[in-house]
Amino acid sequence: MSEKELGQKWDRCLADCAIKVGTGLGLGIVFSVVFFKRRTSPIAFGTGLGLGMAYSNCQNDLRSHYVLHSNVAKEP
Amino acid sequence: MLRVCWKGARAAARQCVCGKVSAHPLQHCRRYTTAGDSGSSAGKIVAASLLTVGGGVGGTILYAKWDPKFRANVEKSVPYSDQVFEMVLGPPPPPPVPLQKKPVKVEPLQISSLSETTKESKAKAKKSDPAPVEAPPAVEEAPAQTLQEASAEAAHIISAISDVPSVPAPGTSDDSPADPTPAAEECHPEPALTERPAEEVSARLAQQDKAEQDALAALTAGLEETLGSSAKITLQAIGAQEVALTAITAHTDKLKEAMDSQTPPDEKSAQWKALNEALSERTRAVDEAGDALLKAKEELERLREVINSAKQAKIDAARPQILAAEENLHSMIVDLDKVVTKVQTAQSEAKVVSQYSELVNEAKAQFQQELANITPEIQANWKGLSGKLSVDDLNSLIAHAHRRIDQLNRELAEQRVREQIHIETALEQQKLEDRKALEKAVVSALEHSREDMRLEQEKKVQEMREVMEAEMRTQLRRQAAAHTDHLRDVLKVQEQELREEAQEILTSKMMEQETHYRRLTQEQLDTFTLDMNAAYARLKGIEEAIDSHVTAEEEARKAHQLWLSVEALNYTLKSAGANSPTEPLEGAVRAIKESCAENEFAQALATAIPEESLSRGIYSEAFLRSRFYDIRRLARRVALIDETRNSLYQYFLSYLQSVLLFEREQEAPPAKLAPEDLDTFKLLAYATYSIERGDLELAAKLINQLRGESQRVAQDWLKEARLTLETKQVISLLSAYANAVGLGTTQAP
């Protein structure tokens, strides 16, 4: 079902986002705790990183149909 | 403000389209203020238009008055214009009369002019009218009268011209049919050209012939009579003349004899007596001859008269007789003349001799007298006195004789001297007499020769005539022969024609009879054949009906089967669950295929069902409907996403748009999609409307028009919808077909 595709995409997107954000957050916390003296910036950084990656992923996923693939012909 | 102006302009445009008011609507407000100006301009316009129209109408009327053809054209094309024209111009002119009379008039006028000139050239006093109106009757009259006149050249010409109109049937002019008869009556009866009937002609001819014959007979009789009598009398005359001639010659001879005084004296008296007798005889004969000559001449004159009258009677058959009579007459005249001349010569000779004898007698008498004077005693017959004479007497006699001899010598000398003169005078006399005789002879000879020539000419003419007659007779005979030949030929041809005609009639009658007979037999045959054919046809019909029954039942069974299988198929369609597709249609389709193995249409249709539906089955419409709403929602949400705009932000915007955009859920789709209708939301509204109304097809068409992400989203649903629609279409076709076939094969109970 083509209409479910979008929903599936969004699901993946959200899942990915959650994972990425969580992972970023976690890593941020870890890094902030471990390396950056409990400052909040690495948490924010990590979250943002995660969010951004998730956003980009989501966008790419959603765009994937419209992206043109080119085949470079190999010279003999 | 702008809108008001816009609306006003629109109204003005509408009015302009209707074509009523030319004034600008904005000028409406101006009208109240400047009424005068526009009024005068309108007045000017009205006046100008009236003038133009009036000028056009007037011009048309004038031209129509001048040219009737144009008038007719206008009357034909414009209704009620004929009434206008009639009112103004009067009734239309009548069509032009064809000039037929003129050429006919020319001929009689010419003839009449010619006749008039001839009339003027000839004497006046004609009763014909010189007016040209009555030229035809004048033509009829004048030629008749000119014929009457019968002047040589003009009459010939005019009769040649007037022969045409004077013939009873009026050929030249049409306007004087009754005139020829009074004209014919007026003029003197021309030689009747009517043919007398044949019997009359033959009777007349016979009459004429008889009359001729009678005349001829009378003429010949008269001629013969006169000829006979004149011949007799002429012969008599000639005889008399010859007798006279002989008498004269006898007398002359006797006289000559008497002159010679050789005979003895006693015979002298007998001689003298005979001489006297001869003389008396001669006179008598001469008288008789003269009488006979007169009578002959009379008779000849009578004969000539008769001949002349015969000639005047002009009977051809008598010609040879006339000619012969004339010849006889001529010969008689010639003979008479000859005899008369002979007699005359004899008479002249006799005269000479008698003169001589007289002279001699005179001399003798004188001598005797002298002798008597000398010798008075010797009186009588002194010849017998030789012995009685005395010497004195002898001496005196001798002296007298000497004296006489002297005298005679002297006379002889004188005569010798006067000989020449005498001879000349005698010659002259003789010449005169000769000339007279010659003249007479010449005249008579001329007359004779003339008569001869005339007779010869007549004879020749007669001969020629006979020859000509003979030739003409031969020619006539030839013509008659030719005529008979021609008649024979014509008769032969006629006979041939008649025979052919009869033959034709016979054959036609025969043919008729034959055709009649044939027709009857044919009719019988036809009726028989017809009956046979009818029976055969009925038999065939019955057989066919039975066969068709069988086939029809077969067909009905097949159709029933088909219908059952299609119904089964339809039923399988109904087996679609709420969310699940139907059973695969394969079985039913196979059943259909089996049931209509030989039906191509059904086979084609059965194969046209898509594979998916066969294998998987199709979704029901309700399912598709419900699914549609999901599609709709989704499509609305991603309405903005397409190849160019597909970032997440766009997704958010698109979602925002879908939330904020208020529109009717359902909207009736127009008959034609305009470009502005291709908006996603509009399309979805139309599709929803269609779906709600059950028109899946239209909804599918509309959904097909989606673009971008909406299209991608609706793809599956569209596919399903297509499938369903296809299958349904085929099935409906099949069922319709089955129904049709069933209807076709159903028999009324």
From TrEMBL, chain A:
GO terms for cellular component: MICOS complex. The keyword Membrane applies. The chain crosses the membrane at residues 18-36. It is a single-pass membrane protein. Pfam families: DUF543 (PF04418). It is found in: Mitochondrion inner membrane. Keywords: Membrane, Mitochondrion, Mitochondrion inner membrane, Transmembrane, Transmembrane helix. It comes from the Eukaryota. PANTHER family: MICOS COMPLEX SUBUNIT MIC10 (PTHR21304). Belongs to the MICOS complex subunit Mic10 family. Component of the mitochondrial contact site and cristae organizing system (MICOS) complex. Component of the MICOS complex, a large protein complex of the mitochondrial inner membrane that plays crucial roles in the maintenance of crista junctions, inner membrane architecture, and formation of contact sites to the outer membrane. This is MICOS complex subunit MIC10.
UniProtKB/TrEMBL annotation, chain B:
Its main location: mitochondrion. Transmembrane segments: none annotated. Component of the mitochondrial contact site and cristae organizing system (MICOS) complex. It is a single-pass membrane protein. GO terms for biological process: cristae formation. GO terms for cellular component: MICOS complex. It comes from the Eukaryota. Component of the MICOS complex, a large protein complex of the mitochondrial inner membrane that plays crucial roles in the maintenance of crista junctions, inner membrane architecture, and formation of contact sites to the outer membrane. It is found in: Mitochondrion inner membrane. Residues 117-129 have a biased composition (Basic and acidic residues). This is MICOS complex subunit MIC60. Keywords: Coiled coil, Membrane, Mitochondrion, Mitochondrion inner membrane, Transmembrane, Transmembrane helix. Residues 130-152 have a biased composition (Low complexity). Residues 91-152, 164-201 are annotated as: Disordered. Residues 286-313, 391-418 form a coiled coil. Belongs to the MICOS complex subunit Mic60 family. InterPro entries: MIC60.
